[in-house]
Structure formats: C-alpha cells, structure tokens
Write a structure and sequence with these properties.
- This protein is α+β, with helices and mostly antiparallel strands and about 350 residues long.
- The protein has 3 domains: about 70 residues, Uridine Diphospho-n-acetylenolpyruvylglucosamine Reductase, domain 2 (2-Layer Sandwich), CATH 3.30.43; about 110 residues, Uridine Diphospho-n-acetylenolpyruvylglucosamine Reductase, domain 3 (2-Layer Sandwich), CATH 3.30.465; about 100 residues, Alpha-Beta Complex (Uridine Diphospho-n-acetylenolpyruvylglucosamine Reductase, domain 1).
- Helix content is about 25%, strand content about 30%.
- It contains 9 helices and 20 strands.
- It is globular and about 65 Å long.
- The two termini are about 30 Å apart.
- The mean pLDDT is about 95.
Length: about 350
C-alpha cells in the first residue's frame, strides 16, 4: 500500500480556526489510487472516512475516531477551447485562490469575484461557495466524484448537483460522494459583476474606470483582506453564519424598526438579510470570552485568539444564534461543517 496512514495526529495545522483536536488515523491523498486505498483502509479499521481539504470550513469540537483523509491531489488542465470559451478541469486538492489566480493569468474571466476565498477546488462545489454576486454554479461545468458505496466514478452535470445558497447535493450527502475533479466553463470576454457590495466603490478608490477581471480580483482581495483576518495570524473560518433568507413581511417590519437594515430582495419574494449587520446591531462585534471571540472589524467572523476549543467556539456561536432569534426573530445558520 502506497498510502501512508499515521495514528494520533493533531489536526490543529489542518483547520484554519486552529482548534486542537486529534485524528485517530490520518492520511493524505495525492491521486485517485490513494483515495481508493483510504476507503479500503477505513473499512478494514471499521471507522468512517472523513475527507478534508484546506480545513477552512470546519469547526472541530472533539477528537475524531475516524480516518481523516486530506486531499492533496494537484493538476489544472484545459480540456476544450471553442469560441472564446474554455473548459478547465482542476483536481480536488488544488488550493482555491491560486487556482483563481491561474485562470486570470490565462486571460480568463468568471472566477474573479471568488478571489481570496480559502479552501480547495474540491470543497468549493460542496458549499457552492460565493462572494460579491457570484457563486460556483454560475461557471460550473461538471465534476467527477467517487461513489463511496460502489467504488464507481460518476460524472455530475449542473442540474444534478442541486446547488443552493451555500449548499449542494454533496454537502447533504457527505458519506456518499467524494469529489475528485471539478470543471469550469470560463470565457476570455465576459460581463464583469461589479454591483454587489463595495466592489465598484473600491475600484473608484483605486482610480480604475474601466476595470479588467484582474482589477476586479485585486479590488476584492483588498476588501477581503480588510474584513477577514489572515488565519495564519488569527484563527478563523471566514464567514461563520449564512446570510438568512426571510419573508418580505418580516423584512419590512424590521426595516420599520431599523431603517439602516441591510437587506437584498431575492428570487421567490424572499429577502436576504446581512448576518453581519444583525450580529453587529446586537452588540456582539468585538466580543471576547477567553480565547473565543467575534472579530473586532467584521461581526460575521468568529475567531480563535489562541487556545479556544471547538466547544467554546460552538457555545459562543449558539449564544449569538439565540440572541439574534430573540431580537429579530431571525434564524442564523452556521456555515462551517460541524465535526
């Protein structure tokens, strides 16, 4: 067996919140063969296989009596080019932001608004990651996944993935599908998405009137760097809560009480509220208890100041959820996967 399986490995270096927990068994997959070996080894050990990527969307609350498999498969390739459109395939272990930068270096557009998002290519479809008006589904062209039950490879097209807001079939069925490769359809000349959040304002501040995709990426990297702390300096998992969807009636009622409510109409007659605004309005921004806290510049981000446990961060998150529900009658849903 080429797969190297270790015992009792700390996962602190492999989750961006910097939570100290141990994995009973741990291995790293560099190719499809390693993945298959890991599945067989987990079956032999009689434990579940837990797959992780960059660890940027995890909240670990206890030691894991499982085989943790870290995806490190690498490779990016152009499959087709036709009429200014390129079909790009990337291995699941490719770090997401460097992959976005690679597409921009090739003169391709479509992923620039998703710059500086942590994690890996393989994890991106699970969450249907999105930022500044763009989601994975907007340029998604398919993926290859391993069926854990049968050992067969399956190709998924857009409509089979059941993408939703920060959700997908793969997030809802984590024990069934293991994503190996993802494909994107990108263009050499595509419309830029500039009107979500402060993107256009930042471009104006940068003195850019006619931005390129590279300019948009630079603006978004600048905005994100100000709002989101570097996990290498301060443990965090990025945005900790989803922006909640509420009825128009509730949004109108809240707006009567809070004229500065940040809200966006969405399809289906619902309204998306800014979770960060709700949390800040409730007074949680900058809150700290022990080493678990809410970031002082961005209320949507929970942080680990050093030695906070996953249980302490979870307890803080639940306190915030309960307070937001009591104050605004709004349910906040956590973004990170809870283990």
């Amino acid at each position: 067996m080429s797969l190297r399986v270790q015992q009792d490995v700390s996962l602190k270096p492999f989750n961006t919140l910097g939570v100290e927990v141990n994995a009973r068994w741990f291995a790293e997959a560099h190719n499809d063969a390693d993945v298959r070996e890991a599945l067989a080894e987990a079956q032999r050990l009689g434990v579940p296989l837990q797959v992780i990527g960059g660890g940027s969307n995890l909240l670990l609350t206890r030691d894991l009596e499982v085989l943790v498999l870290r995806m490190l498969s690498k490779g990016v390739r152009v499959l087709e080019e036709q009429g200014g459109q390129l079909l790009i395939e990337a291995e699941a272990g490719e770090p997401w932001h460097p992959f976005v930068m690679w597409t921009l270096e090739q003169g391709l557009q479509g992923l620039e608004n998703l710059s500086l998002i942590p994690g890996t290519v393989g994890a991106a479809p699970m969450q249907n990651v999105g930022a500044y008006g763009v989601e994975i589904k907007d340029c998604f062209a398919g993926l290859t996944a391993l069926d854990r039950k049968t050992g067969e490879l399956r190709e998924f097209q857009l409509d089979e993935c059941q993408f939703d807001y920060r959700d997908s079939r793969f997030k809802r069925e984590p024990d069934r599908w293991l994503i190996l490769r993802v494909r994107f359809l990108l263009e050499r000349a595509a419309a830029l998405h500039l009107d979500y959040g402060p993107v256009r304002q930042r471009l104006t501040e940068m003195g850019i009137a006619n931005p390129s995709a590279v300019d948009v990426s630079s603006a978004i990297c600048s905005i994100r760097s100000e709002k989101l702390p570097d996990p290498a300096q301060l443990g965090n998992a990025g945005s900790f809560f989803k922006n909640p969807l509420v009825s128009k009636a509730l949004a109108d009622e809240l707006r009567q009480q809070y004229p500065d409510l940040v809200a966006y109409p969405v399809a289906g007659g619902q309204v998306k509220l800014a979770a960060g605004w709700l949390i800040e309005k409730a007074g949680w921004k900058g809150f700290r208890e022990g080493d678990a806290g809410v970031h002082r510049f961005q209320a949507l981000v929970l942080v680990n100041y050093g030695e906070a446990s996953g249980q302490e961060i979870l307890a803080l998150a639940r306190r915030i959820q309960a307070d937001i529900l009591a104050r605004f009658r709004v349910v906040l849903e956590m973004e990170p996967n809870l283990l």
